[in-house]
Amino acid sequence: MATLKAQIIEQLNLQEVKPEDIGDDTPLFKDGLGLDSIDALELIVLLQQHYRIRIANPEQGPEIFHSVRSIANFITAHQQQNQ
Amino acid sequence: MGGNDVWVLGGGVICGIGNNVPECIAAFRQMKPGMTTMQYLTSTHRDSFPVVEVKADNATLAAKSGLPAHISRTALLSAVAVKEAWESAKLGNIREYRVGLVSANTVGGMDKTEDFFAEYLQDNQSGRLRDVVNHECGSITELVADMLGIRHHVSTISTACSSSANAIMYGARLLKNNLVDVVIAGGTDALTRFTLNGFNTLMILDQKACRPFDDTRTGLNLGEGAGYIVMVSDAIAQKMDIQPWCKLTGYANANDAYHQTASSPDGIGNYLAMQQAMEMAGITTEDMSYINLHGTGTLNNDLSEGTAIQRLFGNAVPPASSTKSFTGHTLGASGGIEAVFAALAVKEGYLYPNAQFSHQMKELNFSPVTKFSEGNVINNVMSNSFGFGGNCSSLVFSKENS
Amino acid sequence: MNIYINGTGCVSPLETAIEGRLPSAAPLYDNIRLKAAEPDYKQWIDIKMIRRMSRVIKMGVAVAQLSLQEAGISKPEGIITGTAYGCLDDTGVFLTKMVNQNEEMLTPTAFIQSTHNTVAGQIALLLECHAYNNTFVHKGFSFEHALIDSIMQLREGKISNILAGAMDELTNHSFNILSRFNLFKHAHAGEGAACFVLSTEKGPNAIAKLKGVSVLYKPDSFEEVAADIVGFLAAHNCSQEDVDLVITGRNGDPAGDAWYEHVENKLFSELPVAHFKHLCGEYPTANAFGTWMASRIIASQEVSPAVLFKGNAPSSIKKVLLYNHHDATHHSMILLSIC
Q1: What whole-number distance in Å separates Cα of residue B229 and Cα of residue B25?
Q2: Do domains C4-199 and C210-337 have the same CATH topology?
Q3: Given B202, B203, B259, which is nearest A36 (Cβ)?
Q4: What is the mean pLDDT of residues B34-44?
Q5: Using an 8 Å Cβ cutoff, are C209 and C312 in contact?
Q6: In which element (H, E) is residue C310 found?
Q7: Gyration radius of chain C over CA positions
Q8: In b/e form, how buried is each residue of C40-77, taking b as 16+ CB within 10 angstroms?
Q9: B46, B105, B117, best to mutate vs chain C, most C CBs in 10 Å
Q10: Where are the domains of chain C?
Q11: The domain C4-199: what is its CATH number?
């Protein structure tokens, strides 16, 4: 999850935020980090670029990207599926 | 004729359903929307999304417009529509008036720049300079102005999807302030890989023909084209024996100030623009005969726009439709193209159909018009254009004797 | 009806954002390419929004906030910007990725930020301002058209203030490409942003009055420009003798500067002349810097030796004429007066 946090920080250009600052379960959208719909689209590209997972429907975003842990779980589930 | 009125004398359009106004009207009459697979632009996404390209290559457009074929498609389209608009106004020699050209666009000469960039990125001394000399939005306008001999006031506006509606407003103000006698105002945009890919990153492109204001809609189709109206002030109209199409009686621009690309759920920017345009026109909701919706077909726009319309009109929403169901979203040109359609609706009593519609949106109490008709009593028409940056514009066109 | 400049803000290759005034000696730039001296933007922009903003957007928002602060208003009744090049950095980033990645795996931020009205949109967002919002993108007239639109709206009497400004940036790509057009053989390549709160009511820190703006596209001759300037002054009840200081946009390019020479010698041979592009460089909206400078000169009643080009600094500066052109095709005149 530390790698994922670093990737998120880089993709979203979260200046002055370090991986240690993001809790595994911190809500990413609205409260917590306060990300918005553009960030959600950026995260969709991140998943494609680094983990080769395609999300066709942006409406799935809020659920998958709820927290770093939910993203990590989603990635694991998809990678298991592909094996 | 009153004191400070603005008269619409004519208009010109080129878009994916017709190379001129009569062809576009025929397409509405025959229920022939213009969505197809990409034919003229090259892109790796060619088969992924239907688009509404102007059905002519650059060589054909060059012959029609009088500009050279190597010039940006954005300028070629603009020239064709400006010429049609000027001719339809029947004002004679353009050099006899203080003419203003206010032309909006979002892409400028990007169709050429993106070709240049491929070579330039390999080596920053390569790439043909003539492909970027007209990159700027303003350069596109000047290519057309210079060709037609328009010098008195030449301007360009760029506010995303509301651009050409704002151009029309600025043009009307120039007339009222006696800075020009005649204004040709509207906009142009050509389809480019830059725009196609940009919209694709926002995940709002439909992989099928778009369904504006339909409950099952999933996005927009990109289009391209150009549309302009010719306007004169009262002072000029009184001097000449003119046959106006209608009057531009109201206009307003308001900002949603909610998010960079998404509209607020209650559509406050949309609401304010419509309300203020109608207030300026001096009409009530009962006087509105038809609304040409912004209606892109995205989940977000149609809901916000529909919500704002319901807030304004209550249970008595007038006939409304999105002509983007035929033309696609022509971005910087949309306000101009739809202004021509709106003005013509007043002149000829047209109601335009909203294609690809079957399911009323569950949040709304109205459905769009689905059949073309003419000879209706159309006194006032409102045209909406809502763009990125929360930029919301509405125009009201009215019959002469109002 | 009077139009007051109640607040200004400027980001330029000088420390104008912090100092708010001109240097006493002209700087010696060792590079043909001038870079804006950027303030700490965090004082005006929330860090969550800054992360997406390119330099031109930050510059634009900063000068907007500076001018609103000086004018003492929190929300203007209109926002009008002018930019010839738009958001070049984001355009370049998106284009580069699009070409290099063959249109795959592209991200939305650069595309969204590349639209020309992003600055005006972001200002509205930050201030939650629902008022009129427009952006002009017409080359060397982008700033002047923003002023003309502002004047027309204020004349309608429905609103009493407008925020009007202009900004353009230079990126590595744009500098390379513009250089290939030989634009910087003599002139410095510049960038910057300037904003003004224009109001029909005089504010507590009112700086100057904006008397008039006029533009002239592709004049045929020096004589046509000279005649236009005389007509412009007359339209504002001003004779050539009434002008106390002339400011011109000479940039070191001999062919371009010939226009200024003619106007200075033919119409204002007895008057002191100041210039500004040796401070901010040449770019399509440089006249916004020129106007900022003109307004500060009126407010302070001082003409710094750093900007005086010809003649002696006048003891009383009531009327200032600013004559500028970009590329010899886009000429403009702005008349400012004391409050």
Answers
A1: 16
A2: yes
A3: B259
A4: 97
A5: no
A6: strand C308-310
A7: 19
A8: ebeebbeeebbbbbbbbbbbbbbbbbbbbebbebeebb
A9: B117
A10: 4-199, 210-337
A11: 3.40.47.10
Sign (positive/negative) of CA torsion B25, B27, B31, B37?
Answer: negative
Does A38 sit within 8 Å of C52, measured CB to CB? yes
Asked if B123 and B205 count as a contact pair (C-beta separation under 8 A), the reply is: no
Q: Write down all domains in chain B, each with its CATH number in brackets.
A: 6-239 (3.40.47.10), 251-398 (3.40.47.10)
* Cα–Cα dist B323/B16, whole Å: 12
Q: Residue A25 sits in a domain of what CATH number?
A: 1.10.1200.10
* Tally of domains within chain A: 1
CATH of domain C210-337: 3.40.47.10
Answer positive or negative: Cα dihedral of B285, B287, B290, B291. Answer: negative
| Contact status of B203 with chain A (Cβ, < 8 Å) | yes
**Beta strands in B34-139, from DSSP E residues, in sequence order:** 99-104
Domain range spanning residue A55?
A: 2-82
The pLDDT profile of chain C, 339 residues, written as one tens digit per residue, is: 999 999 999 999 998 887 677 888 888 888 999 999 999 999 999 888 899 999 999 999 999 999 999 999 999 999 999 999 999 999 999 999 999 999 999 999 999 999 999 999 999 999 999 999 999 999 999 999 999 999 999 999 999 999 999 999 999 999 999 999 999 999 999 999 999 999 999 999 999 999 999 999 999 999 999 999 999 999 999 999 999 999 999 999 999 999 999 999 999 999 999 999 999 999 999 999 999 999 999 999 999 999 999 999 999 999 999 999 999 999 999 999 999
B257 in contact with C at a CB cutoff of 8 Å?
A: yes
Please report all neighbours of B, defined by 3+ CB atom pairs within 8 A. Answer: A, C
Interface membership of B131 toward C (CB under 8 Å): no
